[in-house]
Every structure is written in structure tokens, then in C-alpha cells.
Structure to design on (142 residues):
């Protein structure tokens, strides 16, 4: 997800620069082309603004592991489903696209979780779910 967002931002910015140079060379400034260029530039800068601060953490694999008691809730809307990890000790939420295969989910069922994230806690990398009592490994991200 991180690299997709980074590449999408770079593509939009390069598209906007290419469109701007085309418009200046050909001296064609229509409202549609200017709007397309501005929209592309804004979307690209937004995507890069979100992803670039974490780039060094991702490239150097400088991650932070957040440990503690957690609950796992499943959000299913339409065809997609996501797992929301709520770490109770730090009161942080982490969202993963894949759903771990567990016996039960919800706020009433606690687990012990280890979630690997970037140092700034913006992008989730990996998770491990353990039984809260026996610390037996139940699930990991595939």
C-alpha cells in the first residue's frame, strides 16, 4: 500500500509537469487542460506529502514493534474487509487489509499483539497475534 501510494504521487506530479510543458510549448491553455493539470498536481503532492516522511523508515527497514493487549474488529463493507487492531495499552489503532484466521473477534475478546509499524506509526507492516494467557502464537500476517 505504501509503495503504491508513493508511485501514484510521483505519477501524478510527473503527469502534471508533462502537461504543463505541453501546454507551454503548444501555447494551448484550455480550462479543461489547466484543471486537469492542477488536479493532477494537487493529488500528486498530497500523496507525496503523506508518504515521503516515512520513506527513510521504509527503505532502511527501520521499524517499531508495538506490543500489548489488543482487540480485533472486522470491518466489512461491500466486497472488501479489513481488520482493525486496537492496542489497549497505547490506545492506538492499526488497520490491515487481510483478516487473521481466529476463532472470535470483537471488543470483548482480548489478544496479545505485536504490530510492526514505521517509526512514525503511519504505515503498518506486519502483525503477530498471541493468546493473552498462554502467549501461544495464533496468527501472523501472510
Amino acid at each position: 500500500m505504501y509503495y503504491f501510494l508513493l508511485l501514484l504521487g510521483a505519477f501524478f506530479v510527473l503527469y502534471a509537469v508533462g502537461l504543463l510543458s505541453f501546454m507551454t510549448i503548444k501555447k494551448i491553455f484550455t480550462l479543461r487542460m489547466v484543471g486537469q493539470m492542477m488536479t493532477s498536481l494537487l493529488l500528486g503532492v498530497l500523496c507525496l506529502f503523506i508518504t515521503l516522511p516515512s520513506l527513510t523508515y521504509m527503505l532502511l527497514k527501520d521499524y517499531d514493534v508495538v506490543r500489548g493487549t489488543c482487540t480485533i474488529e472486522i470491518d466489512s463493507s461491500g466486497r472488501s474487509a479489513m481488520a482493525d487492531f486496537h492496542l489497549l495499552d497505547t490506545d492506538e489503532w492499526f488497520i490491515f487489509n487481510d483478516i487473521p484466521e481466529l476463532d472470535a473477534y470483537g471488543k470483548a475478546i482480548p489478544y496479545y499483539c505485536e504490530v510492526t509499524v514505521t517509526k512514525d506509526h503511519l504505515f503498518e507492516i506486519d502483525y503477530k497475534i498471541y493468546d493473552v494467557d498462554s502467549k501461544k502464537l495464533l496468527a501472523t500476517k501472510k
Remarks:
- Residues 6 and 50 are 8 Å apart (CA to CA).
- DSSP finds three helices and six strands in the chain.
- Helices lie at 2-26, 31-51, 55-59.
- Residues 2-26 form the longest helix (25 residues).
